[in-house]
Amino acid sequence: MPAVTVHTCAHNQPEGSVEIEGWKASVICMLPWLKTAPCCAAVTALKVSDAAATVEGEFLIISCGWALPGAGVALVHDRAHEPCQGTGMRARTAFGVARLGLTATGLVALIGYFQYTLGVSTFAIANFFSYFTVQSAIVSILVFMSAAVVALRRPTDPAWLDMLRAMVTTYILVSGVVYGIIVWQSSSANYSIEVPWSSQFLHFVIPVFALIDWIVDPYKARLPWKYLGWAIVFPVFWLVFTLIRGPIVGWYPYFFLDARQVNGPGETVLYCLIIVMIITGIAALLTGITRLKRMPRHLLPPWRNSA
């Protein structure tokens, strides 16, 4: 391999460039004292010897620890020979704009659903905001808005934001799956459930696009398996709150939580266990997606490589 010339950008900027046998890509030096995001080093025309540059799969690995005190490695990704300057940030901008669209769609759907329920004779504001779907939708709007702003301003999402994105994506997917089952069951019973456009967006359209965003995002952190435990914390608190509130107000957001509408408390417990299994399964799916091998694990910076 011939010598490589690395031209880095200004200090604390996410973009750099490298050219070697057709490689044109971003270069990122991982500095261990900067735990919030990758950055480039304030170095230009850095000469890298043959021994310091190796190719592993689709990544050109350049060791730069000897050039910058405390630095780790530089990971250079082959971006199909696209011009390197701004490539990474253009992709991040696209994610930011897409998440803004997801946020706006969620807000419009939530308002539309609220207006729809105003026409229901048994409507009560407190009951409306007691639905798991509504609560998870509100939280998801806030999280996706934050993720959009971060994507427009930073080269990667912080790990805590990826964790929150995984949680809200899990919850809105669970809402869609459970609601879909309820609607499907109603079609074979003696009653029907009206599904307005706002409900379709909240339960089906937005969760699908949130899942797509999670799958195609190459910048997300590697989630630890203990995330599965964190994912069920909010649903458990919501369930306890609902079961305590239900007898007091005489109303439950979902029929299976009301023992009078099913075959006793045992069936309610069974439904709840099934939903916990669905939550755990979806959380495991999202976690597994982050752990698909994209680059050598030992080369990832520590804050993007949880066990």
Automatic annotation (TrEMBL):
InterPro entries cross-referenced by the UniProt entry: Pr6Pr-like
Signal peptide span: none
Keywords from the UniProt entry: Membrane, Transmembrane, Transmembrane helix
Residues passing through the membrane, by range: 97-116, 128-152, 164-185, 197-216, 228-248, 268-289
Taxonomic superkingdom: Bacteria
Name of the molecule in the record: Pr6Pr family membrane protein
Natural source organism: Cryobacterium lyxosi
